Amino acid sequence: MSKTSLQEGQVIISLPESCLLTTDTVIRSYLGAYIAEWQPPASPLLALCTFLVAERHAGDRSPWKPYLEVLPKAYTCPVCLEPEVVNLLPKRLKAKASEQRSRVQVLFTSSRRLFSSLQPLFSEAVESIFSYSAFLWAWCTVNTRAVYMKRGRRQCLSAEPDTCVLAPYLDLLNHSPDVQVKAAFNEETRCYEIRTAAGCRQHEEVLICYGSHDNQRLLLEYGFVPRRNPHACVHVSQDVLVKYLPSTDKQMNKKISILKDHDFIENLTFGWDGPSWRLLTALKVLCLEAEEFPRWKKVLLGEIISDTNEKTSLDIAQKICHYFTEEAEAVLQKVCRMKDKEVAPTDQLTLVETLWTEELQVLRASAQTLSDLRAAPL
Q: Global pTM?
């Protein structure tokens, strides 16, 4: 909360470089010699995770204790969710969650030899210190709380971009999609600064924006779902896109190829304002009659081919929207039953419930827009 009114361009937070937790911090620490000599070189991400696990284990001996104590004890990124909860996620997000879990598991498994090399630094067995749960906590800490800061490559680390920096207390600021801020490292002051891009009244909560992300992206990367996110949307996959199109269309494969070649098969969505222009354009191409098909380039340029094509594409969009609406309602009922039976952590079920509730609200808004478009004269 701001004690005074903040003007546009005013610095909200300024953290000296010495307060930032970076790979430089790691290399200068007691872990530095071990990580610097390790072959093949550790990634910047692995270096940060290793340091976090070691410092958390150090407890009162760690100079980073004040920061570590305010970090979450557990996270709600999909990689941390119970399998039965992950199965409730939308298909697209579930696939990304599976990829995320695999990446973390592979990184942990491939790093065990590095952890074992650190044994001389600890009186306890490193296997108990660098457990998968401890590593997962560290990975989530970096993934959900690090800020971007472009840095030069350290020769003792791998060539992966070294851009993740932990900025104590700065990462306690909550997200709002309506807030505009400027965040960057100030080379002159040698501080990481956050400046307001708009004013903030006295006694208002000071918020920052993590980016113009939809709810699935926010859940995947940060482990939360905001309500009434203006960027919320429902993604339409290729299999659903063609679900209600006639199977007898001999030109369907050509149409799909055209959409792929012109990047119209991804990022097709329903939003608060209705179906996206990309989604409607893709459907218009797919709904072209045989005699209209040679004019597909005009469709991609936004031209109207025929009243029939316009009406058919809106009809298909409405059917797809209805399909997703029924899916969301069914999953929400299942979540309610699982809560009653206490078959999974309530906080995780509530998180998924919020995601589907928000998607359902988006779909209902889109359905109304589609109804209005279909009723309007062509």
A: 0.90
